[in-house]
Amino acid sequence: MKKLEVLLGAALLVAAPEAFADTVRRALVIAHNGSDDPALAPLRYADDDGVLWAETLKRLGVETTLLVDPDEPTRKGGSLVLKDARAPTRAAVEQAVKHLQAAALADHAAGRQTDVLIVYVGHGNTDDAGRAYFTLADARLDRTSLYAEVVDPLGADYVHVIADACRASGVVGSRGGTPDAAVLAELRGVLAREQLASRPHVGALFAESEDGETHEWSRIRAGVFSHVARSGLLGGADINGDGQVEYSELAAFVAASLHGVKGMPARLSVNAFAPTAEPRRPLVGPAPEGPSVTFPAGFEYARLSVEDADGQRLVDVRRSQQQWTQILLPLRDVYWVRAPNAEARVTLAQLSSGTPELRPRELQERGPAEEALRQGLFAVPLDRSFYDEYVAAVGLVPVDFSHPFQPPVVGGAHAPLAVAAPSDWTSKLELGLGAGRSPLGLAKFATGPSLSWRTPSSSLHLLYYGVRGAYGVTPLAARDGIRLHRFTVEGLLGLQAPASTPLFAEVGLGWGLLGLTAPGFRQADPALLTGHVAAGVMGRLGGMPLRLSAQVGMDRVTANGQTGMDPQYGLEISLRR
């Protein structure tokens, strides 16, 4: 019976994309600059974030209700989503929930599933009793009211909560309450404990930092987390190219985008809780036709951003050079596509003509925090290796890579398949250092470097293959210059991240050379057959992927006219740039 359940579960995962085709997605975006706490200054960009969230979700085919009270600069921006927007009051929230509830009932009657995204941007705080809440224009949305008055009455099949509850000051401001561990834990509980305990259809995504704060940046006129999350939903996070963005993809994209930010008061990190009833439930699905820009495999620039004619940053992405990337864009008449040292002005009509041709430009930034964000934000690409390691580390369910994606190219041709490939083959090289038993048991141990190249299988999930070269030296009589050398080259086949764990196991088989050197003397057996099995754990050290393994192997060696098997065992640590 258990085998049957496993097979059925696997079948549902494979069929998931087709099932989501009958899903209707709606969103409620709540954005508020103000606070009911006199100690907290108003935010600068929560209202701008609310507008951008509404524009982003509408571009993605999500029917969106926006509750925001825009300040004068935001109002003068003239976004069309402000036409039907209402102030974020308790009455407006209640009315929006009733509308979404009625729509869900109609969808269910028609046989359609309903997903609702709830996006909150504004102040997060705690009251005198330590209860966490989000601030509305005339009320508080605490844990009880969030679920009892918003999430539960929706009647949706799945609900996804995205929260950027923050505070601002200066060019790079703080978003959030006092940096207190108890406050942070309480705010986290609003999104995490409740839904995990009793609401398996609810997922959540939010950012935090070591001191309980996240940040706004005047350069992008938005919250850093909100901007990164929108960039991911607009295509930057679609690691398998299926047109949908799942929790594991968006969380990995945010983690990669924030990974290089240094020099800030505290480092941002992302928390993702996928719905336990369906961990691979997409937040957004295939988008309708509309504005988009495509960067083919081999495109010269890796770090790219798109702004509108008013200088509003719409999306950022850091891509590998061999990665095909399509970015969806909110509707504008004119766009500026920018790299750190090049740019192109593109009209809406010109988007369909192909990839823009960027020309050199000058860029100047000022201030240490500004420089930290400019250099660090989107410094790390979301490639397949980063994604696999991140998902395994945090325990999210990975996306399906079993159906390779063939990207289209303007003109009817097709680009070479290059989904989430690293920037070049050298990015998969690992440099290691090993120590183990000396060949033939002539000394206690041998040490030496290794160089490996590993790449994930494009057709079989969790599997990888590669090649490994290793060298070990044993000083037998160091003062006399007598040394035993062992050099091997092996093909590799391995399994990594099983059951979303940071573990791996591999086997290797190949050829080697065993030699002895001394002053004026050299002798070697160039026909050594070798093989090994290894198992270990993956992680990161100083931002670089790390692999620690224990190895057991066997060499077929001819020595003193006799051929036999010589056991090998040891430890190895390797890093990839």
Characterise the protein shown here.
By secondary structure, this protein is an alpha+beta fold. The protein has eleven helices and 29 strands. The chain has helices at 2-19, 46-59, 72-76, 90-109, 143-151, 181-191, 193-198, 224-236, 247-259, 368-376, 384-394, and strands at 23-31, 63-68, 113-122, 124-126, 132-135, 140-142, 158-165, 172-175, 202-209, 214-217, 222-223, 245-246, 268-273, 282-284, 292-295, 303-308, 313-318, 325-328, 334-339, 342-347, 359-360, 429-436, 446-456, 463-477, 482-496, 503-518, 521-541, 544-559, 562-576. The chain has an eight-stranded antiparallel barrel with strand order 22-23-24-25-26-27-28-29. The protein has a six-stranded mixed β-sheet with strand order 2-1-3-7-9-13, with helices on both faces. It has a five-stranded antiparallel β-sheet with strand order 17-16-19-20-21. α2 (46-59) runs parallel beside α8, α8 (224-236) crosses α9 and α9 (247-259) crosses α11 (384-394). The longest helix has 20 residues, at 90-109.
